[in-house]
From TrEMBL:
Organism from which the protein derives: Haloarcula vallismortis ATCC 29715
Protein name as catalogued: Alcohol dehydrogenase
Domain of life: Archaea
Keywords: Metal-binding, Oxidoreductase, Zinc
Pfam family membership, one: ADH_zinc_N
């Protein structure tokens, strides 16, 4: 089969690799029909995080079940399914408390499971991992493109909003106008926030944030952005969604959080270890820091229900579509900020 391979910073190639096979009775093989390039893929693409050269990439697969192991009960060949960015069993202590990202039987895409940006993947723990799309929606292209972000960014944006404690009537600030931040806006609106202030650096993305439900936007940088947010909210918001992961974004999130408020953070931390997180900035104003890597499997069913009933549609974050051969071009477009998120249709 063919799959995208990491060949070093700035270099993704599409190569012939062995097709994953059923190895355990709980495995399923999925023929990938849709996948995506992720903002988190850019960290290794830019050489900012380590990744083994020659490894398969991608972690947001959707497709058709091709084959299942003897113990798989929830899906069968021919079913349309999607999978979160990590594999989880659904029955261990952590899965049962909704923390699927800490699953003791968990695994990642890549290696010989196949990366999400390739023709086939092996879902180990298929019953816990795969989410079935009901048959009547299974071939509707628009619906599938609205579902695909549930593999990662929509669930992650939702986790930011939940972690920040957003509920009916709240004022919140979303830091970051990438795919996760935009999904954070959708999530905050869905949870009933009354004022949603989106902060970012790109006018076009902030326009999309407005169409997703942001009531105000701030395009400034640094202290100007913080001052603008604090002016708008008369001293910060009680609920702040940190959707970037860079140390500067975390600082901004804390600086625009109202005393006693909560920052929900979901961005993969980068640079925070070098500069150090200023715990005193949290201490002085009793600001709570909540969140972490999003257990998107925990949210998949409720978000899927909303997509299927037509009240949630994150698909406008896909501003570029490529085929498998176009994956390297997709990385480049995201690296150069030409695309918010790239949809890959196989
Ligand atoms: Zn992702
Ligand atoms: Zn588990």
């Amino acid at each position: 089969m063919r799959a995208a391979i990491y060949r070093g910073p700035g270099e993704i190639t599409v190569e012939e690799v062995p097709r994953p096979e059923i190895e355990s009775s709980t495995d399923a093989i999925v023929r990938v029909t849709h996948t995506a390039v992720c903002g988190s893929d850019l960290w290794f693409y830019r050489g900012q995080s380590d990744r083994e050269e020659g490894s398969r990439v991608g972690h947001e697969p959707m497709g058709i079940v091709e084959e299942v192991g003897d113990d798989v009960r929830s899906v069968e060949p021919g079913d349309r399914v999607f999978a979160p960015f990590v594999i989880s069993c659904g029955r261990c202590e952590f899965c049962r408390k909704g923390l699927h990202t800490s699953c003791v039987n968990g695994d990642s895409w890549g290696g010989d499971n196949g990366g999400g940006q390739g023709e086939y993947v092996r879902a180990t723990e298929a019953d816990g991992t795969l989410v079935r799309v009901p048959d009547r929606h299974a071939d509707d292209e628009d619906t599938l493109e609205a579902i695909l972000p549930l593999t990662d960014v929509m669930g992650t944006g939702h986790h930011a909003a939940v972690s920040a404690g957003v509920s009916e009537g709240d004022t919140c600030i979303v830091v970051g106008d990438g795919a996760v931040g935009l999904c954070g806006v959708l999530a905050a609106r869905r949870l009933g926030a009354e004022r949603i202030i989106a902060m970012g650096h790109h006018e076009d993305r902030l326009e999309l944030a407005e169409s997703f439900g942001a009531t105000e936007t701030i395009a400034a940088r640094g202290q100007d952005a913080v001052d603008a947010a604090n002016d708008l909210t008369n001293g910060g918001a009680n609920h702040v969604l940190e959707c970037v992961g860079a140390a500067s974004a975390m600082e901004t999130a804390i600086d625009v959080c109202r005393p006693g408020g909560t920052v929900g953070y979901v961005g993969v931390p980068h640079g925070v270890d070098d500069s150090g997180l200023d715990v005193f900035s949290l201490f002085g104003d009793n600001i709570a820091l909540n969140g972490g890597v999003a257990p998107v499997r925990a949210y998949a069913d409720e978000l899927l229900a909303d997509v299927l009933q037509g009240t949630l549609d994150p698909s406008p974050i896909f501003t570029k579509t490529v085929d498998l051969d176009g994956v390297p071009e997709g990385y480049q477009a995201m690296d150069e900020r030409e695309a918010i998120k790239v949809l890959v249709k196989l």
